[in-house]
TrEMBL record:
The keyword Iron does not apply. Its main location: membrane. This is MFS transporter (Putative signal transducer). Keywords: Membrane, Transmembrane, Transmembrane helix, Transport.
Length: 416
């Protein structure tokens, strides 16, 4: 039996707003790198004359995020040494330094040296994925149930904000000052965003000397983790499967690239931030489960509206734009609710491992869904693809309460 951790002085513990601000800075920083890699860099490479096949190499940087569960136990063993203080800040500092150095080196190579540039970005992705393991574990340990909605609002909102900086501001800087200075400016942003976490106060007690060794097997043995993985798979399938074909559908519906760019860059980003903030409020007031199911219901309605537009040839840009913006807000709210509940299923003894498993399930189901949605759209048309998304969202909204109840019973039994 694992000994309970020693009590820490309440005055020594960081306040919830400070924890949320610290992890929010890390989440924004991670998404800055993602925005540079997946939004900014492809545009720069294309403007430099590179082929789409060559540009596709940058998606190698997805691999560390998809498979970070493989080294999450090693990270947790270092972060939570038995009988010694937590090392969350050390992991974030080391990983952040490596990511910043890799991005700075990418600024020296420039877009013409695609091979070395991709290597730098893969290293940066590996480092930030590792930081994410520690940051998520820290968030689960440090936030009480009533504050977890705000913690996940920081996570989801930070992703939107970071993507706007890395995919928007970065391109403006490249246009005005060139690749190198723009990349190094992003490095400065990373350092500033990580400072609050790295230099913040952490008054949590030392890890018990007889604490269990974090492992994937220990996570998968717990029924609440298995239920959480099923919850994640269902929810992500219901929420994300329309994303891949949404952009091509808008193009084929007659919307110009500039219009789509404004929709995605301003409308969808703003709606996503608003949805994340709303999520923090409504999750605390109405509960994570109710909001997650409600978000899936709204997603079902939006997917059905897109299916109807595709089936009947509706091309009204205002209507399609409203659906895109609403979809972004609903998705952000839903993921705040889902991950707030998933935090409760992660064991404090290895929160980084458990929460990483949930996130990797998110990524795997997204990839499968995007392939299926793209195949259906290509073979049978957009209406069939959006109809599939509608059906999956409907199935998920009906099944989610059952899985929530099963997971909650497992948590209650484990704490009895």
């Amino acid at each position: 039996m694992t000994s309970p951790p020693a009590a820490a002085s309440p005055a020594a513990l960081p306040s919830a707003p400070r924890v949320i601000a610290a992890i929010g800075g890390i989440y924004v920083a991670q998404s800055v790198i993602g925005g540079v890699t997946f939004t900014g860099l492809p545009a720069v490479l294309r403007s430099a004359g590179l082929s789409l096949g060559e540009i596709g190499l940058i998606f190698l940087t997805v691999l560390p995020w998809s498979f970070k569960f493989l080294w999450a136990p090693a990270v947790e063993r270092y972060r939570l040494p038995p009988g010694r203080p937590h090392r969350s800040r050390a992991v974030v500092a080391i990983g952040g330094a490596i990511a910043t150095a890799a991005l700075a080196l990418a600024g020296l190579f420039g877009p013409a040296a695609l091979g070395p540039l991709v290597v730098c970005l893969v290293v940066a992705a590996f480092a930030t994925a590792t930081v994410d393991i520690a940051c998520d574990g820290y968030a689960v340990e440090s936030l009480a149930d009533r504050h977890r909605g705000w913690g996940n609002a920081a996570q989801v909102g930070g992703a939107y904000m970071g993507s706007a900086i890395g995919g928007g501001l970065f391109l403006v800087l490249v246009d005005y000052v060139g690749w190198g200075p723009a990349t190094w400016a992003m490095c400065g942003v990373l350092v500033a965003l990580g400072a609050l976490f790295v230099f913040g106060r952490d008054g949590r007690p030392a890890v018990p000397a007889d604490a269990r060794r974090p492992s994937l097997l220990a996570a998968l043995k717990r029924p609440e983790v298995r239920a959480g993985l099923a919850l994640t798979a269902l929810f992500v399938a219901g929420q994300k499967w329309i994303l891949l074909v949404l952009g091509p559908f808008l193009v084929d519906a007659g919307l110009g690239l500039s219009t789509i760019g404004v929709l995605n860059g301003v409308g969808a980003t703003g709606a996503g931030l608003l949805g994340a903030l709303m999520g923090g409020v409504v999750v605390r007031r109405f509960g994570a489960e109710r909001m997650a199911v409600a978000a899936l219901g709204l997603q079902c309605a939006l997917a059905a509206a897109l299916a109807a537009c595709a089936l009947f040839g509706v091309r009204d840009p205002w209507l399609l734009g409203a659906i895109v913006i609403a979809n972004s807000a609903v998705m952000a709210l839903g993921f705040v609710a889902l991950y707030a509940r998933l935090m409760g299923y992660a064991s404090p003894a290895q929160a980084g491992v458990d929460f990483t498993l949930f996130q990797c399930m998110d990524g795997i189901v997204s990839l499968i869904g995007w392939y299926l949605a793209g195949y259906l759209a290509d073979s049978f048309g957009y209406a069939a693809s959006f109809a599939l998304a509608t059906g999956v969202a409907l199935l998920a909204s009906a099944t989610l309460p059952i899985l929530f109840a099963r997971a909650d019973r497992s948590v209650a039994a484990a704490s009895a």
